Structures are given as C-alpha cells and as structure tokens.
Amino acid sequence: MRNDTYLEVNLSNFKNNLENIIKYVKPKEVLPVIKADAYGMGVKNMIGVINDMGVKTACVALVIEGIELKEAGFNGDVLVINPCMLKELDEAIKYDLVLGASIKDEIIELNNKSKECNKISRIHLEIETGMHRTGIRLEDLQEYIELCKGLDNIKIEGVYTHFATSDEKDSQYMKEQANLFKRAVEMLNKNNIFPKYVHMSNSGGVQQIHDDDFTTAVRPGLIIYGHNVNDDFENSIGIKPVSRLISKVTLIKDIENKPNMQYAINGATKIATVPIGYADGYPRALSNKGKVVINNVICNIIGNVLMDNILVDVSNLDNVNVGDIVYIWDNDKITVENIANEANTINYEILSRISPRVERKYVY
Fold it and tell me: Is 362 marked active-site?
C-alpha cells in the first residue's frame, strides 16, 4: 500500500446519505448495496455505520462478499443478488446468506444441501423484466412457484428485479419493467406467497419511482456514496459525496521548452510529479487531458498517465512545493463525474476501480 496517495472516506456523509434515503422512501425498507468493497470505499470500515443505523439487510453481488461482510461483524442479513455457483452453496448455507435465485438446479441443490444441514434457506426470486441478463421470465414463474412449494427447506423471503434504464430521466422502459414486475408479484400473491421483501428500485429508481404502491423495499447503491446516477437528476434527497481522492507533489522540475521535447506542445516550463497512475485506478484515458487541483488551482495533466505517476503542468503556479496537497477529486473544482465524463465512462467505474494499494483514510 502506498503512503503518498489515499482515498479519504467521510463516514458522517455516508451516514447522512443513508439517513436521508431512509426518510425519503419511508415506510419502505432500505437494503443498501455494498458490493465491490462498498464501491471502493472499504466495506469493513463502513459496517459500524450500517450497524448503528439498524440496517436489517444489505446487498452484495458475490457469495465471497457476503462472507466477508458477516466475518467483519455485520449484524443483519446479507442478500447475494447475483446467481451463485453450485460449489458455493455449502458456504452460503454455513453463513446463512440469503440468495437471489432464478436457476432451477441451484434452487433444488440449495434445498437438498439445506436439508442435510437441517436448515431452512431463504431466497429472493429474481424476475426478468427486461434487463436480459438473469431472472425468471413471467411465463415461467408459475413453474418456479410450484417447484418452490414442493421444497421443504426453501423459503421465498423476497422477490426482485433489475432496472436496465433507471439512469435515464423519465424512462418509459423502466416504467414498463415496473408494470411487468407488478404482474409477477400479483402472481405470487394469487398463489398465497406474500414475500416480505419486494424490491426493484436501485439508485435511479429511488430517485424517480420510489413511491409505488406494491414494493416494500429499495436497493440504493451509488446514491448512498453521494453521487447521482445522472447529472440531470436533482439532489432532492440531500446526498453528500463520501470520498475525496488525495495525493501530493513529490517532485518539481523546470524544463526547457524546446520543439523536440515531449511536453513542448503544452507550453509547459515547470512540471510536478504526482504519485498516482493507472495501477491505482486513475484512467489512462485521461492522458494529456486530465486535471487535478493544486493550491486551489485547476492544473492540467501532460503526457501519458503512467502506471504509478502523472505529470502536471504547474508553470502558472507562483508558489508550488514538494509536499503540496493534490486533489484528484475534491467534489468542488473537480468531481468524480467530471473525471468520468472526460474518460468517457461512468462515475460507478471511477469509484469502484480505485486500487487496494491506495490507502483508505476515514474521517467524520
């Protein structure tokens, strides 16, 4: 782990975001998504806040993430929303993980293994409404209902779907998915199955259609870390960015501006080395066009983003020194969204790809 660049994680802002989302969707329950190491924030250090908030269920993508959450001391249940492999079922049962389910063989094997352990395993049926990834199609749902009814060691605790276009404002496709999901819930109810957790809204869904009359929970991810899924969405919930990526100047060099020099085209006469590169998660796509903040001034990256470093044009800074703080994003002059747009990607990726070798420092 390098000691010159770190991700500052503000736990007070994280708590603020969770509190505001809980108020915003009340009486629905909030199932925070803390997969991918809490979107790069460092899940082990977020658990204290989640426990203090009384979160009853948190969502992850993988069985191994669920195990990590349990072993780190999370008090609630863990829902694994992606399909797991058959070889992972023993561990899932051991740690009492709740599994998203849409594959018959997996459901049957989960029942058989649970019976061997004298346990009842809980599942959330995943409904395919238009994501075209995983899930049970509406025309096949009755068959799955009959299957689960015949399994003594399986309990349908929840039902859910995934929105494909909730990052688009007023998406008609999202509304069509919601209507299809409602039909699936009604089919379950007609079969005397009334799941405790009925959930479809991710962050974009929470911001747009959280006030439906048939779901009981929401699954916010990105917004609990303080970022909108679309720059055009209003911050009506009152979320605050949780992280700042911070480095420092490690070297300053005056250069001769000759035509055959690498940086001459930029007109740079003084460059600063900043110890962050693509191995730390900073996009190489920002070569010759990224920006950072030094001494409250936006400065340009020149040359390629390297594995371990970037070079910054500080020719116009009157007073810059080795050791000066460099903000990769400060949520003011440069945001995660600025970086994502410049790199032709999304804010989710910028956050979640920050390397483990970048230290996480927690503040309140």
Answer: no
